[in-house]
Amino acid sequence: MQLAQLKSPVEQHPDKGTVGCLQSRGERSIGVITMTKLVVLIMSYFSFVLIISPFGKDQVQRGEEFKKFLEWTEKYPIAFPRWFGGFTAGLVINHPDYAKAVFARQDPKSMVTYRFFIPWIGKGLLILHGPKWFQHRRLLTPGFHYDILKPYVPLIADSTKVMLDKWENLLANDSTKSLEVFEHVSLMTLDSIMKCAFSYQSNCQTQRQLDYYVKAVYDLTNLVSQRIRTLLHRNDLIYWCSSHGRHFREACKLAHQHTEQVIQDRRRSLKEEGELEKIQKKRYLDFLDILLCAKDENGAGLSDEDLRAEVDTFMFEGHDTTTSGISWILYALAQNPEHQQRCREELKDILGERDLVQWEDLGKMTYTTMCIKEALRLYPPVPGVSRELSKPITFCDGRTLPKGSIVIISIHNIHRNPTIWEEPEMFDPTRFSLENSSQRHSHAFVPFAAGPRNCIGQQFAMNEIKVVIAQILLRFEILPDSAKLPVPIPQVVLKSENGIHVLLKKLDER
Ligand code: HEM
């Protein structure tokens, strides 16, 4: 059955739950413009936000979107269609069976939103598709090997310590303090990715105003998010003439100047005799080394343009996602003090008197990892991903979608689908015990997506999250700030409309 053939707003499939219908009540055909549809088109045009947030700006600002999505997931546990901007319709997938079918394929990303990233991050791994994506993925995969990730742990631990020292200073005269964590964590993860991936000491956490590159990256992520949410700015001409567009162009120029400089310096030193051997003997290989030394089977490396696209892609992907993850995990632990305390006990046992996490500690954090996963389930940093089908798809229940359809796999909806998760709103880390995990659908928990286009940085991300959460919990108690509860919004990654506030309390010395 094709989606476009469904005639009633909700059609009960004989074998498999319900799927919402593309047409609104009273309308029979997608191709015919009725009066109602015209109104819907105009309304949805002005209310279009982004592929993973198909509501109006106002609604997004009120934080209504996720609530609506959950209501619809309850009603349509498999999928529901949505108009995007009045011009494009897409199917929002809520069920792991459907997600599995899409994740297994290699359809291109939908350009409805991803195109806004291109002037900045170019066509790197996130955007590419087809043979070029495959070539880049193969070249870059060794950059995430265990041996490469291992020496990153002390670098992340150091960046975390800088952030926590700052927190301690903020607390100097108070026993508890309310803190908006997203901004602090953002600088810390930027600092980390720059040290790990580019051996670049940014000092951005302590001397922010001195570092134009860090500021540019910070601005660009915000500007892309704003552009996606601002209807008029979707038009290139209007955007480039606007003050936002000009700001974006300037920030891009600064970011590119810097990445170009870093690449050229490293290229020059690589050319010097014996430099390659020196790199191989270095304490650790950074991501830039891997990029510069990468060769395909014909001995060809990456072009300058491709290289810069990858550097810019990893700079963005490598910090905004982990910032969201860490910030929401802190919020979830603040809301669930008994689990927070159990993590702390576990971490004290593992680290003893040490402040800084080491590589060997990571595999021992069983309960802490369960809590991290449970928070990633409730607050997935990437709430949804989209694809444009390059050929028709048939789902396991026989329903089909034609070539060219846009599908949005809502990671957020899958993670809270009541037909998959018992009491989905409850924070229950035991869902991720070995026994409980083995009984679950392979695609019920997909914060890093799945299949060939899954997250290449997931191991890096999990390591970073564990180091940061462990060091925070060993120095501070995190309490809820009930006066400033977060309002989740999809802003490329999962953010909160009003920031993520928690109360910090310094723990007694161990
Ligand atoms: C908690 C942290 C993270 C989460 C939840 C996350 C999630 C995801 C998801 C869902 C995708 C699929 C995107 C899509 O299909 O459109 C993805 C792709 C990607 N991620 Fe991550 N990510 C995280 C951290 C990182 C880090 C730290 C890096 C780099 C160091 C990274 C680099 C990438 C890249 C390059 C891709 C594109 C891969 C490809 O298409 O081959 N991510 N990530």
Protein traits:
Cytochrome p450; 510 residues; 4-stranded mixed beta sheet; 50% helix; single chain; alpha+beta; disordered N terminus; Cytochrome P450 4A6; binds protoporphyrin IX containing FE; 22 helices; 3-stranded antiparallel beta sheet
Task: Give a written overview of the molecule.
This is Cytochrome P450 4A6. The protein is of the alpha+beta class and 510 residues long. The protein has 22 helices and 13 strands. The protein has 2 domains: 1-94, no CATH class; 95-387 and 406-429 and 446-506, Cytochrome p450, CATH 1.10.630.10. The protein has helices spanning 35-47, 57-61, 64-75, 96-103, 111-114, 118-121, 130-140, 146-149, 152-170, 181-198, 212-229, 236-241, 243-271, 275-281, 287-293, 304-335, 337-351, 359-362, 366-378, 411-415, 434-438, 458-475; strands at 10-12, 18-20, 79-84, 88-93, 176-180, 384-388, 393-394, 400-401, 406-410, 476-480, 488-491, 493-496, 501-506. It has a 4-stranded mixed sheet with strand order 3-4-9-6. Strands 5-13-10 form a 3-stranded antiparallel sheet. Strands 1-2 form a two-stranded antiparallel ribbon. Helix 9 (152-170) packs antiparallel against helix 10 (181-198) and helix 9 (152-170) packs parallel to helix 22. Bound molecules: protoporphyrin IX containing FE. Protoporphyrin IX containing FE (HEM) is lined by residues 109, 125-126, 137, 313-314, 317-318, 321-322, 325, 381-382, 385, 447-449, 453, 455-457, 460-461.
